[in-house]
Amino acid sequence: MADDYYKLLGVERNASADEIKKSYRKQAMKYHPDRNPGDKSAEEMFKKVSHAYEVLSDPQKRSTYDQFGAAAFEGSSGPRAGGPGGMGGGFHDPMDIFRQMFGGGGGGGIFDEFFGRGGGADPEDQRGDDLRFDLKITLEEAAKGTEKTIKYRRHVACDHCHGSGAEPGSKRKTCATCHGKGQVVRSNGFFSIRQPCPTCGGSGSVIENPCKKCKGEGRTVETATLTKRVPPGVDTGMKLRSSGDGSAGPNGGPAGDLYIIVHVEEHDLYERNGDDLYCTVPIKFTLAALGGNVEVPTLDGKASLKIPTGTSNGTTFRLRDKGMPNLRSGKRGDQMVRIEIDVPKKLTPEQREKLESFAHASGDDVHPVSESWAEKFRKFFG
Asked: What is the span of the domain harbouring residue 281?
């Protein structure tokens, strides 16, 4: 069975971000490879708790995990694994997560000094930004699934310098300030603290002749086009992740991910509650009194609904398997049909005469309310 990320970190499912961070600190220090040399089980636990922390410390990834569990991140055991369109992927090296927690990661820090870590930042770690796109679809599209082509703006690698940031024919050179280490050491009382090099920003190198097109950034902005399959059963607020379709990273770093947020538009006939659909059908009071059949709309077309004799206003009927498909199982919910009796606002003289005759024959002109309610009325007034 897949690991429970909350149990790995020793926190409850409703734990706050601070509680998750505090627990990860303890677990990471306990299982850190430098404190457990040669212990493969400790190294594996260090990877697991770091992976769990990265998911639960990111609001979007935590929301995905809470909805779909660890299966949403299958194939993400290595850094940024997973293909476009999958739910997995987008993860960093466990040591990077540890450095970020304790003030390191391309810039050192007290714990990098303690563990002997150092060196310039690897361009592969300079991952691009994740992007968000809000997609509107109809209820019918949500029920059957659809394919949508979207356009959005993102950073891409500069086609002139191929992402290097340097003019063709020139190259990056070792930073004279940090001598390629990407860090400078400053004394702070008893401790020596490593910080990112202010000249190269922690990369360990500087551009000798910046690219004229991208001004040395290595990226330009373009309008991207992406076709994405929307599965049946999606609901408002659900996220579709497209790995590697976010912005390209600086200095040739990998691209981030694109998160497509689904918004199902309101429908003229239906209201949705989970996998069930609700609709109101107005019928004539004569049909409610005499009974009969009425056609009602469903996502599959028209359906005949039997109205029993004496149906009351507000009566609700269930049409099984006529609702929305479940996103996971595909099993369809039900459609609930609420009856609303349509009382005529205007009557012809002939209609009024016949209704008055009916009221007289039924005793309604003498007893205009039900006998059970009249009895409660009498008891109330003594």
From this structure: 271-343
